[in-house]
Each structure stands twice: as structure tokens, then as C-alpha cells.
């Protein structure tokens, strides 16, 4: 586990230095990232603007799939895929807002982006990309501990009338090593899609930003 972490950290362009241990009833391993970035290179989640297109760079559903204890190969592949290549392709397009989709799930992080940017984010449930087995698990009633917490955190700010419960569960599912949630001017959307396709990277257009507040998840 240590050597695997060191390999992944080096692949991300960093080094693993120092650490401490803790005694507990179950194994735990985590990393804290320390570094510097030029002010012009910072991406914020508070810059989304009305008219932006909204994208995801990885499919959703790691929590649902891991909870099934079935075939984890696809989920493992995505969780061990760094976001660095996607970020490199994205950077020349000067996105307005970027954040990673992790423990708060898609709707939690969309709520944060909408709230801090002063916009409404409208997502299409039918456009949400899902890992193999994720929707089947949701239909079967599988939920993780993050699901109720994420609904409590973001639910009051999310309108989801008419959305099937399995897609709602996918959107609230807490992600491990999720992809990037990106907003950028709509006129750049086709070029961004073409560039991601050219280099063989995943990209899904899932919605838009508009005037207003909150998050709308429509069927």
C-alpha cells in the first residue's frame, strides 16, 4: 500500500515526505497535499457564469458499485486514474469554475459551485454518466452512508421533480477519486469535446449554468 501510494504521488509530480501512524480497529491511509501554485493558475468553484456549459470528466457511482462487492475492476480503474491529463487539456480553455466531485457527490459539489458563483446549475439526469452496475445497484436499493448525509447537506437547494430515484441516488452518491466538475463558456463546449476526444479522454456534457440560485436536476 505504501509503495503504491508513493508510485501514484510521483506520477502526479509530487514526492511523499514524512507522516505519522495511528492505532485503530481498521486500517486507514490518507495523504495531505502541500504545495504552491501561481495565482494566475488557480481554479475556483466560485466563477461559474450564466450561459456556461457544465461538464464531468469521470462517470459517477463509485460508492454504489463498491457497496455491491461485485466486479470492481471498472470502478478501480477510474479511482486510480489521476485528473492531471484532464486538467492539462482543460487549462487552455480557461474554465470559469472547476472542482472535483468527491464526498459530497455531484449534487453537493454542484450546490457549492452554484451558491458561491451566484448562479443556478441545471443538470440533466438522463445525461449523467454512470459506472457499470451503479444504476442497477441503486434500483436494488443499495445506498451508502454518504447518501443521507449528502441529501441533508444539499437537498434543500436541489429541485429534482420527476427524476427517477436511481438517478437521484447516482447524483447524491459520494465519490472516491471522482472527476472534475467544470463550467466554461458555451461557445467553447464543442472545441473542448473535440479536444478530449482527440486525446482519448472521457468527457460528458451534463448541464448548464443560468441566472438564479440552487441546483435543478431535471429528467
Describe the protein's architecture and organization.
With 219 residues, the chain is an alpha/beta fold. It has one domain: Alpha-Beta Complex (Phosphoribosyl-aminoimidazole Synthetase, Chain A, domain 2). It is 35% helix and 16% strand. A seven-stranded mixed beta sheet has the order 2-5-1-6-3-7-4, covered by helices on one side. Helix 5 packs parallel to helix 7 (146-154). It starts with a helix and ends with a strand.
The total strand number stands at 7
Count of domains: 1
Chain-averaged pLDDT: 95
- Strand-pairing-aware structural class: alpha/beta
Strand order of the largest sheet: 2-5-1-6-3-7-4
Which sheet architecture does the biggest sheet show?
Answer: 7 strands, mixed
The percentage of residues in β strands lies in: 15-25%
User: What ranges have pLDDT less than 50 throughout 5 or more consecutive residues?
Assistant: none
CATH architecture label: Alpha-Beta Complex
According to CATH, the fold-level topology is Phosphoribosyl-aminoimidazole Synthetase, Chain A, domain 2
Q: Tell me the radius of gyration.
A: 18 Å
Order of helices and strands: HEHHHEHEHHEHEHEE
Q: How far apart are the termini? A: 41 Å
Give the CATH class: Alpha Beta
In CATH terms, the superfamily is PurM-like C-terminal domain
- Overall geometry comes to globular
**Helix count, per DSSP?**
9
Give the SSE layout:
Blueprint: H1 2-11, E1 52-56, H2 62-68, H3 73-79, H4 84-90, E2 97-100, H5 105-117, E3 120-124, H6 134-139, H7 146-154, E4 158-159, H8 165-172, E5 180-185, H9 189-198, E6 204-210, E7 214-218
Parallel strand pairs: 3-7, 4-7
Antiparallel strand pairs: 1-5, 1-6, 2-5, 3-6
Amino acid at each position: 500500500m505504501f509503495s503504491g501510494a508513493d508510485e501514484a504521488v510521483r506520477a502526479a509530480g509530487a514526492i511523499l515526505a514524512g507522516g505519522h501512524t495511528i492505532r485503530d480497529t481498521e486500517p486507514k491511509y490518507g495523504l495531505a497535499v502541500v504545495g504552491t501554485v501561481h495565482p494566475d493558475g488557480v481554479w475556483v468553484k466560485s466563477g461559474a457564469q450564466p450561459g456556461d456549459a457544465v461538464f464531468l470528466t469521470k462517470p459517477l457511482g463509485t460508492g454504489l458499485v463498491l457497496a455491491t462487492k461485485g466486479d470492481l475492476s471498472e470502478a478501480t480503474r477510474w479511482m486510480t486514474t489521476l485528473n492531471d491529463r484532464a486538467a492539462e487539456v482543460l487549462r487552455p480553455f480557461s474554465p470559469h469554475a472547476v472542482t472535483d466531485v468527491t464526498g459530497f457527490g455531484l449534487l453537493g459539489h454542484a450546490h457549492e459551485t452554484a451558491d458561491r458563483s451566484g448562479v443556478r446549475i441545471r443538470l440533466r439526469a438522463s445525461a449523467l454518466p454512470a459506472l457499470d452496475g451503479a444504476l442497477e445497484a441503486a434500483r436494488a436499493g443499495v445506498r451508502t452512508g454518504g447518501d443521507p448525509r449528502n441529501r441533508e447537506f444539499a437537498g434543500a437547494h436541489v429541485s429534482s421533480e420527476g427524476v427517477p430515484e436511481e438517478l437521484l441516488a447516482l447524483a447524491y452518491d459520494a465519490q472516491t477519486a471522482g472527476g472534475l466538475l467544470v463550467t466554461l463558456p458555451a461557445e467553447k463546449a464543442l472545441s473542448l469535446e473535440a479536444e478530449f476526444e482527440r486525446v482519448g479522454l472521457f468527457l460528458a456534457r451534463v448541464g448548464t449554468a443560468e441566472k438564479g440560485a440552487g441546483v435543478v436536476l431535471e429528467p
